[in-house]
Amino acid sequence: MMTDYILEVCVDSVESALSAKAGGATRLELCASLIIGGTTPGYTLFRQVQQETGLPIRVLIRPRFGDFLYTAYEYQQMCADIRFFANAGADGVVIGSLQADGGLNEAQMRGMIDATDGRCGITLHRAFDVCADPIACYEKATDLGIDTILSSGQEGDAQTGIALLRKLVLMSEENPTILVGGGVKADNIAEIAGMTGAHAFHMSGKKILSSGMRYRNEHVHMGLEGISEFELYRTDEAEIRRAVEILRCL
Question: Which end is more exposed in the chain, N or C (fewer Cβ atoms within 10 Å of the end residue's Cβ)?
Answer without folding.
Answer: N
